Amino acid sequence: MRTFLPVEDLARDDRFVRYTMRERMADKRASARIDAKERGKTSNRITPDRRDAADAARGLMHGILVGEIQALEGAGRTCHDFRVTGIAERGPLATQPIADAAPAAEVPFALKLDMARQAWDEARHVEISVKLAEWMGSDIGSVAENTVLFEAACSTDPVLRLAGVNRALEGLAIDVFTTMKEFGELAQDPYLAFCEDWMLADEVTHVKMGSDWLRSLTANDPARRERALEFQRVVDKMFSFGGTRSDSMDSPIGLARRFRELAGFTDDEVADIAEVSLQALNERKQSIRAARRSSADAVPPTSNPPTSNPR
Amino acid sequence: MTVSVEPQSFHYVLFDAAAIGDVAAIVLEQLAMTEHDVHIAVDETTPVSRVRVEVGDPIVVRAESGAFEDARRPRQLSQQNTALNLGRMLLRVRDRTDGSFGEAPQDDQMTLAHVAAWDAYIVGRLERSGQTINRQRFLYNFRNRHGFTDTGDAAFEQLWCADRLTWNELASISATALAARL
Question: What is the ipTM of this complex?
Answer without folding.
Answer: 0.94
